[in-house]
């Protein structure tokens, strides 16, 4: 059995990785990149003869953004490119990634674009592409865009790299305010709640990101008494010591205000982690377990399986085994989780980080839907989140992110491979190790899971020491 994953196995794109083209704004990802991506999309969906559209077809592309200062710059650049390529750009303004997916699939759009670097700091930004079905963009289109950015794009029938032409006159596209699309999404989320939240005291950490207005409006409308933190975005404070990557603030709020439950989102609100009434973190694996158990109890799960990733915790699998619920494992990334769910008709899946997909309701991870579904589990069963998680015990897990001289060279190095085997032998059957490339950041993730934290830490350090001894390690992030 192998415990590490190479680029070919993760199928990571050159620029777009597993979750969009992401990096420091105007250093890795520039306004010029955004303009050129927009131009390609406008041409591809409106004028590309391969798509079989009529000569006067005008594509419609919807754009959302998070609260980063650079998101406004990228929004303008994308809209300019899209209209220069002959399509209309519809602006949702500040909104969540899953709302762009929802609007794209329900509004008849050719595709959607979300401007966000998710859980990263404000200096970074990203461009996520969504197809007209509300799913992560097909690899073929991503490959074509990357070839175009590198000056290597050659459409069918062409033998040489090609420059996408700008349109002129009446073919130039329009920029359209589409705030109504965001409002439609909010209405949809509210409609998913099958009971009132009245009497529930709920904490919300909006990460100074996309959910900063939306989350409170939804929970207020459903009747909850809401206590909101980190809902004052200034363009520079998204994810700064807050949200799903810094859960401590929400834990303190829940304990201080004696709340029933708390929910923390990330910058673009496609993730959600929870805090129980005692202030204990409930991670994505535990949320999936709670919801899958409820779905089994109410007959909603049927004979479908839970879809997990290779980073999911041993404790989750043991708890699912005890319930007789089957599961699948995919590569890391909600893109791969959804692909498995769609191919096999599974209904729930997710990641420990809080990307959770309820396939009946969404095509991507949606933090707000996740929060709504957890509330359903609490209210319909008239219980607490601590009670619902008492039968699942997470194994201690140590994860360290390392920057190396060359990711592929490091993964393939004989001494590193040997260290992985040795680390696994150290843990035996009571743990596991994983060494993989990040699909969203320029680093390797070194992880171990064991019956004790000390054993997991020793296994991780053993692998990192091998990188250090071979001159491959730059630093531990």
What's the arrangement of secondary structure elements?
Blueprint: E1 4-5, H1 7-10, E2 21-24, H2 31-46, E3 60-65, H3 69-84, E4 88-94, H4 97-106, E5 111-115, E6 124-131, H5 139-149, E7 175-177, H6 179-191, E8 201-205, H7 214-221, E9 225-229, H8 248-257, E10 261-265, E11 272-275, E12 281-282, H9 284-297, E13 306-309, H10 314-323, E14 327-330, H11 334-344, E15 348-350, E16 356-358, H12 367-381, H13 385-388, E17 397-404, H14 407-412, H15 414-427, E18 432-437, E19 444-449, H16 453-469, E20 473-476
Parallel strand pairs: 1-18, 3-4, 3-5, 4-7, 8-9, 8-10, 13-14, 13-15
Antiparallel strand pairs: 2-6, 5-6, 10-11, 11-12, 15-16, 17-19, 17-20, 18-19
Strand elements, count = 20
- The stretches of 5 or more residues where confidence is low (pLDDT under 50) are 1-10
Average the pLDDT over all residues and give the rounded result: 93
Span of the ends, CA to CA: 28 Å
Number of helices: 16
| CA-atom Rg in angstroms | 23 Å
Structure commentary:
By secondary structure, this protein is α/β, with parallel strands linked by helices. Helices cover 38% and strands 20% of the residues. The protein has 16 helices and 20 strands. The strands form 4 sheets. The protein has a 6-stranded mixed β-sheet with strand order 2-6-5-3-4-7, with helices on both faces. A 5-stranded mixed β-sheet has the order 1-18-19-17-20. Strand 13 (306-309), helix 10 (314-323) and strand 14 (327-330) form a beta-alpha-beta unit. Helix 4 (97-106) packs across helix 6, helix 6 (179-191) packs across helix 7 (214-221) and helix 9 (284-297) crosses helix 12. The longest helix has 17 residues, at 453-469. Mean pLDDT is 93; it is low at 1-10.
């Amino acid at each position: 059995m192998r415990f590490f994953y190479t680029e070919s196995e993760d199928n990571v794109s050159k620029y777009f990785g597993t979750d969009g083209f992401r990096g420091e704004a105007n250093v890795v990802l520039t306004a010029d990149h955004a303009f050129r991506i927009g131009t390609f999309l406008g041409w591809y969906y409106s004028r590309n003869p391969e798509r079989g559209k009529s000569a006067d077809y005008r594509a419609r592309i919807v754009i959302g953004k998070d609260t980063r200062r650079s998101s406004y710059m990228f929004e303008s650049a994308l809209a300019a490119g899209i209209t220069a390529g002959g399509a209309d750009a519809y602006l949702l303004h500040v909104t969540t990634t899953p709302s762009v997916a929802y609007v794209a699939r329900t509004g008849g759009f050719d595709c959607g674009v979300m401007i966000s670097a998710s859980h990263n700091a404000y200096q970074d930004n990203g461009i996520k592409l969504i197809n007209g079905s509300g799913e992560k963009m097909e690899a073929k289109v991503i490959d074509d865009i990357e070839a175009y950015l590198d000056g290597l794009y050659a459409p069918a029938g062409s033998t040489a790299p090609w420059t996408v032409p700008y349109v002129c006159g009446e073919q130039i596209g329009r920029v359209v305010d589409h705030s109504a699309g965001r409002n439609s999404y909010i209405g949809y989320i509210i409609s998913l709640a099958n009971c009132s939240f009245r009497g529930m005291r709920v904490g919300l950490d909006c990460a100074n990101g996309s959910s900063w207005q939306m989350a409170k409006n939804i929970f207020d409308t459903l009747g909850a008494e809401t206590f909101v933190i980190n809902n004052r975005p200034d363009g520079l404070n998204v994810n700064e010591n807050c949200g799903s990557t810094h859960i401590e603030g929400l834990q303190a709020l829940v304990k201080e205000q004696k709340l029933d439950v708390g929910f923390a989102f990330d910058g673009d609100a496609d993730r959600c982690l929870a805090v129980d009434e005692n202030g204990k973190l409930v991670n994505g694996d535990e949320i999936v377990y709670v919801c899958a158990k409820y779905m089994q109890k109410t007959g909603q799960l049927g004979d479908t399986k839970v879809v997990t990733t290779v980073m999911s915790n041993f404790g989750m699998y043991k708890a699912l085994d005890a319930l007789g619920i089957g599961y699948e494992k995919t590569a890391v990334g909600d893109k791969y989780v959804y692909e498995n769910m769609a191919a096999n008709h599974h209904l729930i899946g997710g990641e420990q980080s809080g990307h959770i997909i309820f396939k009946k309701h969404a095509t991507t991870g949606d933090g707000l839907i996740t929060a709504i579904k957890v509330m359903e589990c609490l209210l319909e069963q008239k219980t607490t989140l601590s009670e619902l998680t008492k039968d699942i015990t997470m194994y201690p897990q140590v994860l360290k992110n390392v920057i190396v001289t060359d990711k592929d060279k490091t993964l393939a190095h004989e001494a590193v491979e040997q260290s992985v085997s040795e680390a696994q032998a150290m843990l035996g059957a009571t743990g596991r190790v994983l060494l993989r490339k990040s699909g969203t950041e320029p680093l390797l993730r070194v992880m171990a899971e064991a019956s004790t934290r000390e054993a997991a830490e020793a296994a991780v350090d053993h692998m990192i020491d091998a990188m250090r001894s071979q001159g491959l390690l730059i630093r531990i992030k």
